[in-house]
Amino acid sequence: MPRKRTLIPSPLAWATLNLPVPHPPLPVVAERGGTQLRTPLPVAIIDTREQNPLSFRRFRGWFAKIEHRALPLGDYSVEGMEDTCVVERKDLADLICSFTTNRAVFVNRLRRMAERPHSLLVVTSSLSEIKSEYPYRAANPNRITQSLIAVLTGLRLPFICTDTHELGEEIVASYLYQTFLYDWLDRNGHGRHLSDSDL
Fold first, then answer.
1. Is residue 18 in some structural domain?
2. Domain range for residue 158?
3. Does position 89 have pLDDT exceeding 60, yes or no?
4. For residue 66, is pLDDT > 90?
5. How many helices (H) and strands (E) does the chain have?
6. How many domains does the chain contain in total?
7. CA distances to 95, 109, 128, 137 from 100, in Å
8. CA 40/CA 81 separation, integer angstroms
9. CA-closest candidate to residue 161, choices 172, 153, 150
10. CA atoms within 13 A on the CB side of 11
11. pTM tops 0.85, yes or no
12. Which of 58, 77, 130, 195 is the most exposed place for a label (fewest CB within 10 A)?
């Protein structure tokens, strides 16, 4: 008698279902008429005041150089775009503190970021963790979640949640790379698209 197939995998198999694939050699490439454009690589900047900074060592092929220096705003940027490209990163504990104890300071920083054309808030925690009870903290998960939505709708500042610190590294590295690439394409008369009739 054939074995009955289960529709839902065993919980023991869940952990292996969503393993990220290795990162690509480059996030994206620009081409025109099917020919790849020779585009420069950006210089990534990591703010020297960033605690537990993201490491871009795995993505050295994406950047001409990775520098550590003080930024006027945010934790990460690209050389030459420090006033227009701003990435602010928060882990869960820092996000909770920023939206409670340090709320006024953080909201002011978010308002300044919203004035820049290329700003992104990256939370290195899953949305389900943000929405769950916080052990040893009196903060309300609903308040933190709704504050994030207010940032998105009220300030029109996008945010992204990554499940892990390592995935956050890849997302931020890719964002910096692509922000620089689109800006370079635009400034050099290629338009803001990676290839003909595409993004």
1. no
2. 40-187
3. yes
4. yes
5. 6, 8
6. 1
7. 9, 14, 19, 11
8. 14
9. 172
10. 0
11. yes
12. 58
Q: What is the reported pLDDT for 69?
A: 96
- How many CB atoms are closer than 10 A to CB 169? 22
Sequence-ordered strand ranges (E) for 58-117: 65-68, 76-78, 85-90
Residue 12 has pLDDT above 60, yes or no: no
* pLDDT score, position 61: 95
Distance CA 46, CA 56 (A): 9
Residue 17: inside a domain: no
In a domain, residue 19? The reply is no
Look at residue 150 and tell me if it is in a domain.
yes
> Is the pLDDT score of 135 beyond 70?
yes
Neighbours of 185 (CB within 10 A): 18
Dist CA 175 CA 185 (whole Å): 15
Residues 62/40, Cβ–Cβ less than 8 Å = no
CATH of the domain at 161: 3.40.50.10130
DSSP character for 19?
P
